Amino acid sequence: MSGGLKEAAEALRAAAGGLKNRNTCAVIVAAGSGSRMGSAVPKQFLELGGMPVVARTLRAYQNSDYITDIVVVRRPEDAGIYEEYAARFGLRKLRASVEGGATRQESVLRGVEAVPAKTAYVAIADAARPLVGTREIDLVCLAAYRYGAATAAYPSADTVKTADKGFIEETVDRSRVWLAATPQVFSLPVYRAAAYSCLEEGFAGTDDNSLAEHIGVRVRIVECSRRNFKITEPADLIAAEALLRDTAGDASAGSEEAT
Questions:
Q1: What pLDDT is attached to residue 32?
Q2: What pLDDT digit, counting tens, does each position of 63-85 carry?
């Protein structure tokens, strides 16, 4: 990275830290088909504890004191579904649903460009992470207000290897390995600078953090629970159901003890 680009990144981060406007719009990415689930129903609409996966995710962001608005990025054929969910699940912060693009990166950018005019920060999130805690969302937002960019992540519990042609190349220091989750929160100027720079250069990131990293913006890590995993395969949905049952059982036990 050139010295000029590094200086620009630092200026963006510093400016974000001084913003008084903290209106934060969650951009929930729900435009995928979820082909690895092997289901005719897209994974975001599968039932989890009697509620669609995406509705659980939306409710977590609805409940955050730091999220002022929500925009959903959806498939073209899902245009009317989110209006129904807003009424059914009390999603008062849901402002719009917009059609996604050809790639996740393009879909996120479409969502970001649909946020309300008052927005100062965007909290980009996967629809398929329904067990994210509202407190986790709050903490990532607070870190972004200070540093300009922040992400939920959790440390790797496994030994990590790099490989070449099917053979181990080296063992990575596990203490330095984090698994990125969502939300990934950025000041709006930081995200737009990163997204459009990467678009111009043809850089394809695997998440939104990587776009910020590409232009030299440092992203603050906020440790989150391992419950904040992405539902990708059938086993993930089974695990999420089990976690919900355990949580419900713990709550019931607590109520009985209290009485």
A1: 79
A2: 999 999 999 999 999 989 999 99
Overall pTM surpassing 0.70 (yes/no): yes
How high is the mean pLDDT of the chain? 90
Beta bridge partners of residue 51, listed in sequence order: 48
- In the numeric block, the tokens 């729900």 are attached to 30
Domain span including residue 37: 3-244
What letter would DSSP give residue 204?
Answer: -
- Is 259 part of any domain? no
Q: What pLDDT is recorded for position 20?
A: 78
In order of 13, 67, 108, 174, the CA distances from 64 in angstroms are 24, 5, 21, 32
Question: Token pair of 5, please?
Answer: 């680009």
**225 and 204 Cβ atoms separated by less than 8 Å:** no
Q: Encoding tokens for residue 191?
A: 């995200």
Residue 256 CB: number of other CB atoms within 10 A?
8
Question: Collapsing DSSP states into helix, strand and coil, what is residue 30?
Answer: strand
Q: Is 9 exposed, middle or buried (0-12, 13-18, 19+ CB in 10 A)?
A: buried
In a domain, 254, yes or no: no
Structural domain includes residue 7: yes
Residue 249 domain-assigned (yes or no): no
